[in-house]
Amino acid sequence: MKYLFLTLLICSYLNAETDLELSKDNQAKVDFKFISYPEYLQSILFMQPEGIETKLTESEKLLVDALILLKKNKIDDAKQVLEKSLTSEVEQVQNLSRDYLSLIYLMKDNYIANSELFQKQDMVEKLEKIDIMPTEIVNIQDDSLTVEIENNLILVPLKIKGKQYRFLFDTGTDKSIIRKSLQNEFDFDTFDLGASIESSSAEIDVPIVSEIDTVKIGNNTILNNDFLVLEDENLNFSRGIFSSDLELDGIIGWDIIKEFSYLFDFEKELIVLNPTNNYEKSENVFWLGAPFVRLQHKEGYEFNFFFDSGSYQSEITDMLPQKLELNQIDEIENESQGIGGKLEYTSKVYEEVSLVLNNTTLRFDEIETTESNNFGYCYFDGVLGADFLMSGKIFFSINRGILKVTEVY
């Protein structure tokens, strides 16, 4: 796991399209059942602490409690518990507590606290020289954005200094990004933290921009957000994977995305920011270094899917077919296009899997396996990609823990 925990899984390209069909269920909602793993650490890494059946030490129980709180989006409560479990005599508990705390600090843009946690004194000294202002959202209001859809990817208009640019809307990217030529155009000051990001295909050294003072998404203004800067060629996804070039000015990442609620309506090519709604607070979405969605099998078992709108389509990991005894029908050569290049890998193709999101069934035909199943600090069962967002009206709010299909196309 890299120091800034920036994991970019962007624009996954698959040789055969998975067919995703949504349908509303009228049956009563099934309670979550949790998969029991034979070992404590497995249960934690697969984000299933509720399924642990063995007797726990006090510090092991603290880590379980913290992870359950994180899954309920109770970040501050989890932070207090993790600070206690950090002193555990069990090395695995201590290391995971440190990892989770670091993610929380980074989510809150507290780079200095994160540096101190990892005893990176040189980083602390560098950061203390920068007058970092907290990101602030002003004029928060309902607003409709007309977006572009290219190859199932969502391109959103973003204004910087009054000019409009094309940014990929990517829930799977931790920090927002701009291309270097755009940074040069406005002569933003940058500061090199000596950090790197890890994509699906490369590790790249990047500087961090010292706060772009004003960015507008629709009528909402974002003040003092810091963007990573990448060379232009790393944001040009045109190396043989799409029928047409996809050149980006940047990527809207989780640091901005988490500030709003959304109603996706791609039949009209619209995203409504902060829509008025009467949905009750739920617990089917949580954040642990990335947004995760809790899906159910028909038997009620919970599976955690990485929610990645920057992925071309949904995928499953190698572990899910083993858990559900799915029928493999093919094996194909694949490639994943990410920042810095592409990664070639072999995918298994499975006939069908149906999973439930609240009262909506997601049926995936000929679904393929992804090349990655973990972020180091956790393992997931699959990737819920942009094809899901194209299949109906979808409401999403991380602050309320909701991902909900409001209308099936």
Model description:
By secondary structure, the protein is an alpha+beta fold. It contains ten helices and 27 strands. The strands form five sheets. Strands 4, 6, 7, 8, 9, 12, 13, 14 and 15 form a nine-stranded mixed beta sheet that branches. Strands 2-22-23-24-3 form a five-stranded antiparallel beta sheet, with no helix packed on it. The longest helix has 17 residues, at 91-107.
Portion in beta strands: 35-45%
Per DSSP, the total helix count is: 10
Q: Would you identify the regions where 5 or more consecutive residues have pLDDT less than 50?
A: 1-16, 238-243
Q: Determine the N-to-C terminus distance.
A: 40 Å
Range of helix content: 10-25%
Counted beta strands: 27
Class derived from helix and strand content = alpha+beta
Cα-atom Rg, whole angstroms?
Answer: 21 Å
**Tell me about the biggest sheet?**
9 strands, mixed
What is the overall silhouette?
globular
Average the pLDDT over all residues and give the rounded result: 83
